[in-house]
Amino acid sequence: MNKKLMNIHERIRGEALRFRFSVCVRMVSLVCCLSMNTGPARADEAAPGPIDFNTHILPILSDRCFPCHGPDDRARKADLRLDHKDHAFAILKDSDGHAFVPSDPDRSIAWQRMQSEDSDERMPPPESNLSLSTKEKQQILQWINEGASWTEHWAFVPAVKSILPFEQENPLQENGHMIRHPIDAFVLSAMKDRDLDPTLRASKEYLIRRLSFDLTGLPPSPEEIDTFLADDSPTAYEQLIDRFLYSQAHAERLAMEWLDVARYADSQGMHGDRERYHWPWRDWVIKAFQQNMPYDAFITWQLAGDLLPNATREQILATAFNRNHPVSAEGGIIDEEFRIKYVQDRINTVGTAFMGLTLECASCHDHKFDPISQKDYYQLSAFFNNQNELGMVAEGGSSSGPVLLLPDPEKEHDLERLEEELEQAFEELEEVRIDWIV
Predict the structure, then answer these.
(1) Is residue 419 part of a domain?
(2) What's the distance, CA 260 to chain centroid?
(3) CA 315 to chain CA mean position, Å
(4) Residues 197/199/200/206 CA torsion (nearest 10 deg)
(5) Do residue 73 and residue 10 come from a single domain?
(6) What percent of the chain has pLDDT over 90?
(7) Assign residue 389 a region: left if phi > 0, alpha if psi is -120 to 50, beta otherwise?
(8) 149-170 exposure pattern, b = at least 16 Cβ within 10 A, e = fewer
(9) What 3-state DSSP class applies to 405?
């Protein structure tokens, strides 16, 4: 019996060794095949479809070329920049040629260096531990052959109205699928490119659940579900959307995203992290979303609502956007240093919130990638460096500068009446003073 088990064990062991050997042979064969395909790129090995500069070429240049030929003037070699169009197509400083010549790879010196087999000529150089794959070389070659189009970063290109993929009709049919909204046309076009078909129309139970989570972040209530299921009108879905859009929950969900962008917090965020009372601004944001405030007013009120003619208390409240930064009550800080930190925080927030740019790099030097100079940064800081505030708040305090008194809504009218009476009393007092002097 033991001998029989030993024979079985030997057979299993032999099969395992043969399997391992087979896998090793296949892996070696695969490596050999891959090695034979890593030679210089050929013109007939073009990438499928036209080359897009920002999608295909810029990432290659940024990863492989910018370390030595990019925005950092201290690391730049051969006085060559490949991060700017004017420099990339200009005459080279050390020769009469050009790094890139549109439609002429033979005269594009940068391309010739990229595919050179001479280690002293090849770019990137071997000592950089950077290299170009065959596919990347193919893309660069195809880009040059197609005219070396150099397009601006998509974020700096003005938005244009898109053209519908299909001829617009109402209702529109595409391969038997109803297009009820222009967005459907773009979705169907993308699915068609991927050989995908839409699924069957979702049931009303699924629709209200998806819509509720999308617009409010919450599941629908049983009452909302029953109301929607009982509504057989052709506009039932559209009416459901409107109800969610005008709900308090939808405004809170939208506000949640903006509060993150505006760095809102209920505490100071630094020394002691004590509570502060910025929640009226939070409530104002929710109210603005619920009332569908125009975006230009939404921005203007938050950046400079107090500078508007005859600014209302609500417009002044909106400017608390500029005061959401962390503050410190630590006794050892330098007051002016932290006051400037608050100014820089506002600049950086304006960059991320309204421009989609990280500006803080330019506080120390010209931005390495975005078109923001250090001079631009401090010119922008002038807009936020002109208010009366301190760098250090009082221990237990909640603000480093001017505060806004917010009465209860029911007392708002009484306060306005008292202010008018006080103003009238001062006018009468002035008249009495003048009469007394005379």
Answers:
(1) yes
(2) 13
(3) 27
(4) -160
(5) no
(6) 50
(7) beta
(8) ebeeeeeeeeeeeeeebbeeee
(9) coil
Structurally, the chain folds into a number of domains equal to 4
Angle at 431 between CA 427 and CA 434, to 5 degrees: 135
Q: How much is the pTM?
A: 0.70
Same domain? For 96 and 142 the reply is yes
Reported as a single tens digit per residue, the pLDDT across 99-150 is 999 999 999 999 999 999 999 999 999 999 999 999 999 999 999 999 999 9
178 within domain boundaries: no
Final residue in a domain of this structure, among 366, 384, 402: 384
The domain containing residue 321 runs over which residues?
286-384
Calculate mean pLDDT across residues 404-421. 84
- Rounded Cα distance between 137 and 50, Å, is 15
Is 338 inside any structural domain? yes
Pairwise pLDDT comparison (90 vs 438), residue with the higher score: 90
> In sequence order, what are the beta bridge partners of 173?
178
Tell me the CB-side half-sphere exposure of residue 426, using CA atoms within 13 A.
5
The answer to whether position 257 is within a domain reads: no
Question: Scanning the structure block, which residue is given the tokens 């001829």?
Answer: 167
Instruction: For residues 101 and 60, state if they share a domain.
Output: yes
